[in-house]
What we know:
Number of domains: 4
Radius of gyration: 32 Å
CATH class of the largest domain: Mainly Beta
Strand order of the largest sheet: 3-2-5-6-9
Order of helices and strands: HEEEEEEEEEEHEHEEEEEEHEEEEHEE
Distance between the termini: 58 Å
CATH superfamily of the largest domain: TonB-dependent receptor, plug domain
Helix content: 10-25%
Number of helices: 5
Strand content: 25-35%
Amino acid sequence: MIRTILSCFLLCVSAIHLAEAQSFFGGLRGAVTDPGGAAVPLAKVSLIDESTGAERSTLTTQEGEFAFNQVVPSTYSLRVESPGFRVFERKGVSIATQQFTTVNVQLEVGQVTETVNVTEEAPLLETGSASQGQVVDRQKLIDLPNLGRNPFMMSRLAQNVVQVGNPAYNRMQDQSGSSQISIAGGPVRGNNYLLDGIPITDALNRAIIIPSLEAVEEVKIQASTYDAEMARTGGGMFNTYLKSGGNTYHGSAFGYIRQTDWAANTFFNNRAGLPRVENPNRTWGGSLGGHLSIPKLYNGRNRTFWWSAWEAYSDTQATSAEFAVPTMKERAGDFSSSFARTGGMQVMYDPLTTRNDGSRDPFAGNIIPASRI
């Protein structure tokens, strides 16, 4: 019994480590040199999150190299300090999901009280990973039309993505419809889904959770040659990173409405002289986030942050169906005047006459005796 419990415990721990291996973190590396191109060892390199103020620091090696691993996707300021050189500072260094960027720094001779601010440079190159993919950032998720408000449906912005599912089924609960996607020639519904590094793919290769657009910071659609840590799938990867609060409070509120009175009648209804069917739709929600602050007890600025998002919708759709109900004679067991849709008699068979070959005899006159009802 103890051995069984221990085995289950080790299995759970292994599963946790496997889940941790699949991540949304990015990275930043580079080298620091002097004006002559020689390496600058032991220079202090700081990476500062411009949203939360969180700061990480490291020292360059004897070869002047530095690296930051497990960097949360955000926009950062890079600061480099070394005695005898001016302070180097570059703002707006964007690290996206699973993006490993290289930034090389050349210091200028001067006093440490002097700062060189870099505002424009060539675009950062991703040379630390062979993974190919495209990031759909927060601005695209907010600004571009998305009828079902499904972040995974924005994958159509990426190259080599083909969506073959019914476009009507792209809402927050349409796991099957929104998973009908092929990435880079991979199998339809052969993709893997990660949410903040946690696998959310079920046995049918569908996302078990479709987060609200108000909660998503960015989605990276990764095609072939992604890192081995992703594993599992022969298709593509949806690596989703959720929003986090910052030092300033901010949020959103939205609402969409489609009233029946604002819509035109359908062609076939007009042709048949039928009125317009009631079909209103209302979608609403919002979000709010910032740093945790408890007056006189705790100030989470630069330390503790939170974000919440909520949305819902109400959709009314008219449906029609046909049902057959028994007549008064049929309720009494008399089916002598009952006919099928094909025009033939609706024959009622006596189940007590069933033979080994499955044949049966009909009731006499197609009437079920009252004693048998």
